[in-house]
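HUMAN:
Just now I want nothing more than another pair of eyes on a protein record. I would be glad if you read both lines and explained how they fit together. I have put the entry right below:
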Amino acid sequence: MLEVYLKRSGRLERVSDAGEIPAGTVWIDMLNPSPAEEALVEAAVGVDVPTREEMQEIEASSRLFQVDGRLFMTATILSRTDTPQPTARPITFVLTADRLITIRYIEPKSFEMFAARCQRPGIGDDAPSILVGLLDAIIDRTADTLERLAGEMDALSENVFQPTGRGRRRTVEYQDVLREVGQKGELNAKIQESLLTIGRLATYLGQALMDAKAGRDLRGKVKTLGRDVVSLTDHAHFLSDRVTFLLDATLGMINIEQNAIIKIVSIAAVVFLPPTVIASIYGMNFQAMPELAWPWGYPFALGLMAASAVLPYLVFRRLGWL
């Protein structure tokens, strides 16, 4: 799909499913472009649109470069962060003297939000301003995702460390907790990857704008974007450490419960061992056994077995093992 944005009285007007690139176009947004749409943009703008395979390259020289004064910048952007399967895919930004071209195969909400915002006056109607505004929307969306992730991890931590109280059994399903911790860690890893690539892009863009002697306001906005990325990266590192802590804590809780179960089984085995020995002794069918013909022999054996079971139990309670 091909959408173009035209300059109209200090704002941008969107034209969806455009079959041509009209005059005054300042932003061309290519979502899952077809070969015909790629050829249309290449003919109208004079740039070689990168393929999906080329966008997957991770070398800095393949993601940030300049050809004939046109900047090619690729960053990994998050999408579907409010679903159980968030994704992070590369998006390429091509900045020419008068146009911005975005090539993407995902639909981040940041693009949708910025597209609606840029149709109101005050956003800026030149390509560099649109690029900076779009990056700002992407960073804001990433910050929102980090804030939501931090809140979810707070709730998860309370679930792991909830007090038990006397006589109260824990109802935590640690398998579900481990799955949630893994999902949070995976999302945080994708956020860190995205921030890393956006930070590199902001640094490269700031240097390119400085070389092009762009306006001070625009360069100041790019520097602000870089500082925002640094602060979000630090927060993402903090959440990464917290994910590791929650994972270790959950595994520790699992070990404690397993040890408690093994302890109970071991104590039960020790408690019932003496009665078993007594029952085995009196289960031997020898004719010369003294208690064999004794009328109180059966109650005596039962009482002896009960006493031999109660005595270890009382000792263990005294020692605090139960």
Remarks:
- The first helix runs from residue 35 to 45.
- The chain has two domains: 2-256, 263-319.
